[in-house]
Amino acid sequence: MSSHTASTKLGLIGKLLLDGEMTCETGLHIGAGKGSLDLGGADNPVVKDAFGRPYVPGSSLRGRIRSLLEQAGGLVSPADLVFLSRRRGQEVRIHQSDEPGDEIGLLFGRNPGRMDRVSGDSFESSAASPARLTAYDAPLDLDSISTQMRENLDDELTEVKSESAIDRITAQSNARTLERVPAGARFKVRFVIDILCAEDRELVAAFVQGLRLLEDDALGGGGSRGSGRVSFSNWKLTWRGKGFYAAGDTEQVLVDSAASTAGLHAAVREAGFAEKLA
Question: Do 22 and 215 meet the contact criterion of CB atoms below 8 Å apart?
Answer without folding.
Answer: no
